[in-house]
Amino acid sequence: MTELTHLDERGRARMVDVSAKNETVRGATARGRVLMRPATLALIREGAIGKGDVLAVAQVAGVIGAKRTSDLIPLCHPLPITGVELDFTLDEAASAVEISATARVVGKTGVEMEALAAVSVAALTVYDMCKAVDKDMVIDRVRLVHKIGGRSGEYLRADDSAQRMDLMDNRAHRDEPQTHEHAVARITVGIITVSDKASRGEREDRGGGTIREIVEASGATVGAYTVVPDERDQIAARICEMADDRDFDVIFTTGGTGLSPRDVTPEATLSVIDYQVPGLAEAMRAESFKKTPAGILSRAVAGVRKRTLVVNLPGNPKGVQECLDVIMPAVPHAVSVIRGEVGEHNRPTP
C-alpha cells in the first residue's frame, strides 16, 4: 500500500515539498451529478428558475472553484492553472444534471483536486440556484475519472465506461496510440551498472536499483540487469548483447559518466551506437545543473543502436531519479519512432 505523503515522521499533517520535482503537463477530469425532481430539471432546461440561468452561473462558479482550491483544501498547493472546462448534461432518465470538469496545468503537482473542486462547486451552485423549488436535491458520485502527467502516469477510472469510450473514440479518430500507459507497458528495459567496486562486490549498486524501481513503477518491464567494471570493451559488449541479441527497447547505463580517467561509459556507448539523440543528454544535464553547478560536468550521451535507445545515467541514485523524471515522459514516443510504429511528429496522447 502506498504511504501517505501528507504526514511527517511524527504523524503530523504537512504540505508535501515538491521543490525537487519537475514541471510537466498535467491534467485531470472529474465528474458528478445533482439528482432532482423531474419538474426541477424541466425548469432548468426551460430557463425558468427565478435566480437566472442555472448552468451559466454554475459554469462560472466551477471555474472559480478550481482556481481557489488551495484556499479551501488546507494541504493543496496553489497552482497556476492553464485551463478549466466544464460541461453539463441534462439526464432525463436519471433526472439529474451531469457535470464534468477538466483542469490543466504545467506544474510540479497534479490538478485532481482542482477538477474535483470545480465539479463540487458547480454542483453546489446548481443546488443553490434551485433550492427554492426543490430542497430534496442530492449531490452524488463526485469522483475523479481521468488524470495524466506526473510520475504515476495516466489513471483512468475502471467503472466509468462513458469516459473510457470517449477517450478511446478520440484517440481512434486521431489515429494515435491509445494511452501513454499502454505505450509504457510495452517497453522492455535492460540495465547496465558500470562500477569497478560494485562489480567486485565491494559496494552496493544503488544506481541500478533506483532505475529498476522507477522503470517498474512506470509499468515497463526490466528484462535484464547486470554489473560490469569500468572497462570500455565490456560496457560496449554488454550494450550490443542487450540491443542485438535481446532486442530490448531501451538500455539504461548508470555510472562512469564523469571526468575520472576510469569514467569511460560515454566512449563505450559512442563506439556502438548508430547515431546520437543529444536532446536527452542535454535535458538531463540542464536538470542536474539546477541542483548543482557540477551537473554540467556530466559527459553522458544518448543514442540509438539498431532499434534500441541507449541512455547513460549518472551513478548517484538521486541523479538517476532526477534524470529519469525529465526524460521518461519522452521515452515511449522515442521507442515508437525508432520501431517505426509512429511518425516522428505524431505525438502519443498523454
Description:
This protein is an alpha/beta fold and 350 residues long. It has two domains: 24-175, Molybdopterin cofactor biosynthesis C (MoaC) domain (Alpha-Beta Plaits), CATH 3.30.70; 182-338, 3-Layer(aba) Sandwich (Molybdenum Cofactor Biosythetic Enzyme, Chain A), CATH 3.40.980. Helices cover 39% and strands 22% of the residues. Strands 7-6-8-11-10-9 form a six-stranded mixed sheet, sandwiched between helices. A hairpin with a 4-residue loop joins strand 2 (83-91) and strand 3. Helix 2 packs antiparallel against helix 4, helix 8 runs parallel beside helix 12 (317-327) and helix 11 crosses helix 12 (317-327). It starts with 23 loop residues before the first strand and ends in a 12-residue tail after the last helix.
